[in-house]
Amino acid sequence: MTAPNKIWTADFKGQFRTRDGQYCYPLTVVDGFSRYILGCQGLLSPSLKGTQTVFGRLFGEFGLPQIIRTDNGAPFATCAIRRLSRLSIWWIRLGIYPELIEPSHPEQNGRHERMHRTLKAETTRPPAATCRRQQRRFNRFLDEFNNKGEF
Fold first, then answer.
1. CATH: 3.10.450.50, 3.30.360.10, 3.10.50.40, 3.30.420.10. Which one for 7-148?
2. Are 96 and 88 in contact (CB under 8 A)?
3. What are phi and psi of 64, to 5 degrees?
4. Whether the predicted pLDDT of 31 surpasses 70
């Protein structure tokens, strides 16, 4: 990773329940060079619509990267030809190359996975009462991680 905003990494942290029983799926997006967390949005599901909305907002705020590196889970990849999903086709149309790590090799996105470990420890133990309150925790974490270097 040779320059800011060239390669972004993205992943869902994995679902968990808030104290009211609602599932939360944190979508995280990181600049691969600077390790700046561009976004962490708690979604109600890992749907195309929600994921595309988050990326659209990030593109508007930070511009378009050249590459987005993800794992092989939905909505990033499918079992179709070349594993292209509707999301990755959208990225291609925007001029972004979707780069998939090898299946079952999360270490190929190791920096991102390490950030996830810290995110989980700092924001979900215990989980917040609601998804809205959980998002506030994610927002505080982003501020501390990006601006205060506390992790």
1. 3.30.420.10
2. no
3. -100, 130
4. yes
